[in-house]
Amino acid sequence: TILANQISAGEVVERPASVVKELVENSLDAHSTEIDVTIENSGLKLIKVVDDGDGIESSQVQTAFLRHATSKITEQRDLFRVRTLGFRGEALPSISSVANVLLKTSTGSVGTQVEYKGGKLVAQKAAESRKGTTVIVSSLFYNTPARLKYLSSPNTELSKISDIVNRLALSHPEVSFSLVSNDRELLRTSGRGDMLQVLGAIYGVKTVSKMKPIKAKTPDISVSGYVSLPELTRSSRNYISLILNGRYVRNFPLTKAVINGYGSKLMIGRFPIAVVKITVDPALVDVNVHPTKQEVRISEEPKIGGMLSEAIRTMLANQQLIPDA
Length: 325
Ligand code: ADP
Ligand code: MG
Description:
By secondary structure, this protein is an alpha+beta fold. The chain contains ten helices and 17 strands. The structure holds adenosine-5'-diphosphate and magnesium ion (MG). It comes from Lentilactobacillus raoultii.
């Protein structure tokens, strides 16, 4: 029902950035190689995501807007081996219950266009046939004034969108991303690069020259990424990004482990910039913690944390052996 969707929208669609996250994750799940995000007025007026992914079959388009209609899990045990980013089937119904949504999609042959207003289908027709999906969300939260009131300033909401897109781009250097806000380009990645190239696109080459690679591996866990030298810090932990099995996640113990790797080299209240990719057996990860799936639990947390801290200590020790150029 529309009401149930609005209730779950409260959890899934907290702010414009959550919409961007859900739409881009859908594009990633659909094997896109290019994802272009356009924003107007911090996402309240418009959020547009264009991808070149698999598309949705005409017969499945309406199903995609039904609650818990996910094409990504077929058996309950799949929940414990989640590999795709989305799996709850809540995003499209939730978003469409609190906005106007136009979705245009094609699997390569004939395409389909649907339009939802406040959770109701108002139009469906055949559409152009380029393979991929375009979703346009407009008038976000037009029917939930309480949600609108709770939002932060337009600049803060925009920076949250920018943050999310940056992190998704970092987790997927093989996909070319762009983010344009009110005609201003905030990010463009090549899709041919490694993590370092994406970091350069986000922070600039000068900043990235102060970031160093780290690496650690056991038979069942691998850790790699880039972390800043102690001279390059920020006043918040937010610049520490964790990518677990291709998914950007939040995990306090592992964030702490990154900071601990620096020991006393960080000034009080200062934090490094870090992007760390962690690969473990999906059976060790519990992603089913919260609807937005960012906070995860990992059964090997202490072990992974130890590897992280140690890899950073090693990198810092090696730096001291290299004479200044
Ligand atoms: P979930 O991602 O949890 O499955 P969503 O509500 O986000 O649920 O999406 C519902 C379904 O719509 C997905 O399972 C997928 O089949 C389809 N879908 C949504 N967005 C796209 C897209 N950009 N490309 C291809 N399929 C999509
Ligand atoms: Mg999804």
